[in-house]
Structures are given as structure tokens and as C-alpha cells.
Task: structure prediction
Amino acid sequence: MVKIAPFEVELWLNKYIPLSKHFVSSSCPLPITLNELRSLSDKPVSPDHDPIPESLFSAALHYGTPGGLPKLRETIATLYSIKTPTPLPAKNVLITPGATPANFEILHALCGKGDHIIVHYPTYQQLYSIPEALGAEVSLWRSKEEDKWAVDVEELKGMIKPNTKAIIINNPQNPTGAILTRSTLESIIEIARENGITVFSDEVYRPLFHSISPADPEFPPSVLSLGYDNVVVSGSMSKAYSLPGIRVGWIASRSDEIIHRCVNWHSYTAISVSQLDESAAAFALDSSVLHNLIKRNNDLARRNLSILESFIEKYRWACEWAKPVASTVAFVKFSKMGKSVDDVAFCELLLAAKGVMFAPGSKCFGNGVDFKGYVRVGYVIETEKLEEVLRLVGEYLEEGFESVPVAKK
Ligand SMILES: Cc1ncc(COP(=O)(O)O)c(C=O)c1O
Result:
């Protein structure tokens, strides 16, 4: 049996979503319906231009095309080719059933016993627990809470070993909503290039950049466009594109060798992706829909973020944060008289009292040790629902916060 650590955030969600009235810790923006997706199209919907086109009703539902639906691979390749001198070929995009298998395949293609892997932290646990399960030595490269979750590039230089095989980053970052800026990414690439190291970036929250303008010189590009080929990224329809119910994600790399290794793992894990899912994804990413879809999600994120910000200002005596710049999540710290609360107890008590469900930071993102007092809030839900939830949390802070224990050292 291969031993792997419990996937804490997913286990927490599985356990408590059925018991909650208000689930406010999803990392997906408000999921969209196919009808709403249709309504976002600038081009009239027709039998050919539809999430599920008419031709699919009479098509044999065989396995999908190896590597993925050609139109979808081309569209995704184009998205990575903007502002780059050399376009990414469609053959260098591999469609997967979500980013979870994409990450699984990439990690299996990159990591093994005897390898040293550096992972940006905190992050989605998959990114460090799979390398550990594969026998790699994992070093966590910590974002600094006190510096709005920025990382220290000098520290990264000091972490490199002769057997360092990969640097894994998650940009924008789950659970903080922080970003690695352009200059930080350029430094990471420089360090990787000097040492012949692969860079793997989980970019599932691209392009949900609600609080930084693309005109900002520090706006983060995809690492695929920084002129280093030994790079691989994963992406997904679940997050920025609000379609977690169609299981479509992808792997993209300029390195044919990395893609070939991933294709081999893909054959063992997925074979192909549902034709129906791929077709809906191709519709959502079509230029007639894409911009309106991103606008829908960024507008909702901005509107809700300002509501969450007012809440945090009002309850400054109990909570604080580094305001997120991107994605759908915020990492909010709760404390009493300067002492972090026991975030697991807080989440459980709040759920029991008000039906509101958050994810505790120390359990879901901190190996039970780091990020005590933090909770992940998924705020890109219906605005009225967020307002109602924050009213309930406010009530709880006024009435029940007294009984929440502080964290043990
Ligand atoms: C950073 C990160 N990567 C990957 C995933 C998995 O995404 P998908 O729904 O595409 O499998 C998640 C889900 O929360 C995530 O936060």
C-alpha cells in the first residue's frame, strides 16, 4: 500500500458540507448554469454554437480524442500565447478531467524517490502530499503572513540542493488569495534556469485577478510565458471559469518531454475526458463567451470582497487579514486579546450555532501546526447570501465568541 497523508481540506468539506446550511468555504466562484452560460454569448446560440451542440446528440459517445478535443486544446494554447513571441502549440496542451488529475499526472511525471522538491506554502495539499507519498524530500517555501503572503527569493536560493528537481508554486495562491508578482516569478525562473530545475505552477485561479490591473507592471503572467521551457502549468474550468461540475482541466508545457511523460500517466489515470464536458468547456472559453464569463466572476468577486472587507473592519477586535488580490478565497485570522483562537473549535462551534461553514486553516492548510486561528472563506457566492452569512457570523462574534477556546501552543 502506498501511504499518503489524509487530504485534510477535502475530508473536512466531505464531512461538514452535508451538515451546513451556509457553505462559505468553496474555492469555486458561484457555479454557472448552462443557460446562463448561453446568455453570456455575444454570438447567437445556434445548433453549432452551444455548450452541447446538436451534432453531439447523434455522435457515438466514444472516448474523447486522445489529448483532448482539438478545438479546446487550440483555444487553451492561444490563451497562453498572448504577449509571447512564440505561440504555444496545441499539441503541448493535454486536457484532463479537472486539475486534480492534471496535478496528479504532473507530480507523478516529475517526482520520485531521491528527488528534492520545493513547494510554495501554504497551498492545496495535493501539491506537497503527493511528492511526499512518492518518496521525494519536500521543503516548504513559506509565504510570510506578516508580508501579505509574499515569498523571499533569497530564501529560495538557499533551499536549492544538488538533487532539487522541481519548484512548485500556486499562483494565485489557495488559501490566501495572494499573488506571486511578475518580478518574483522572473526571479524564480532565473533560479530554476541556473540550476536546471523544473518549475511547476498550479494556475487554476488564473485569470481571476479582481484587485490588480493588467496594466500594473507587477501583474503576474503565466510562468509559461517567461521564456523558460522547463516549465509546466495546470489549469481548470472549476475556478476562474465557475464550472466545477464539468470536469475539465489541463496540463500545458513548452517541453515535449514533460508532456510525453504526463500523457503516459494520463493513460493510466484517465484515458480521455467526457466529450460532453469538453464541449461545454470549449463553449465557455470561446472568445464570444470568455470575456463576459471572466467579467461575471471578477465583478462578483470585487463586489463581495468589499462587503467582506467592511465586515473585517467592523469586527477588527476579533479578526484580521491580508486582503486578497485574486481568486475566490480569503484567509482570515480570528483571535482573542492577541491570542489566536482554536480554528477547528471555532469552525465547529460556528457551524453548530449558525449553520455557517468555514474551513479551519491549521487543519486544512497547516499540518495541524501552522496557521492557527485562520479560516478559509470562499466569498464569491451570491451577494445576498454572503451578506446573510456575515450577519450570522457577526451575531456569533457578539454572542458566542466568548466560548471559543484559544489555540494551544
Ligand atoms: C490550487 C488548486 N489546484 C487544484 C484544485 C483542483 O481543481 P479541480 O476542480 O479542477 O480538480 C484545487 C481545488 O480546490 C485547487 O485549489
Residues 27, 98-100, 103, 124, 170, 174, 202, 204, 236, 238, 244, 249 surround pyridoxal-5'-phosphate (CB under 6 Å).
